[in-house]
């Protein structure tokens, strides 16, 4: 390898590697702002909106179908919410399990967050009507 190709290779290795852009909607100023957004959307059963806000890039038509299904299973908005499990990890990471309910109908949210100096990022977001499915992630 001659000097010019070696120099080009060295320069290429010094350039930053492009990474997929972070979904700006998954970024929040702080935990309270994130929870306010999450609680409002889930309590109102707005899953066609909650999924993209928390990083899901599913087709809008599929999200609308998902929301219709959620509204069939849960015909009334959720009135109650409780953080039922939280595990702090190193370097600002944590996972949480949040319950929403109305009467005897429950839905659970599992979320992995990274608390950074510039705000909080929702990295993983799952929901399920089965507690054991999400509780097993801890």
Automatic annotation (TrEMBL):
The keyword Signal applies. It comes from the Bacteria. Keywords: Signal. Residues 1-21 form the signal peptide. This is DUF3887 domain-containing protein. It comes from Marinovum algicola.
């Amino acid at each position: 390898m001659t000097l010019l190709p070696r120099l080009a290779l060295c320069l290429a290795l010094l350039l930053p590697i492009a990474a997929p852009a972070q979904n700006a909607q998954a970024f929040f100023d702080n935990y309270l702002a994130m929870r306010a957004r999450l609680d409002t959307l889930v309590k109102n059963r707005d899953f066609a909106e909650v999924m993209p806000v928390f990083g899901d890039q599913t087709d809008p038509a599929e999200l609308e179908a998902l929301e219709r299904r959620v509204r069939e299973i849960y015909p009334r908005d959720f009135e109650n919410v409780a953080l039922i499990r939280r595990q702090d990890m190193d370097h600002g990471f944590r996972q949480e399990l949040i319950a929403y309910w109305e009467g005897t109908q429950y839905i659970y949210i599992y979320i992995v967050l990274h608390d950074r100096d510039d705000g909080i990022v929702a990295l993983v977001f799952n929901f399920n009507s089965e507690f054991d499915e999400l509780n097993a992630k801890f």
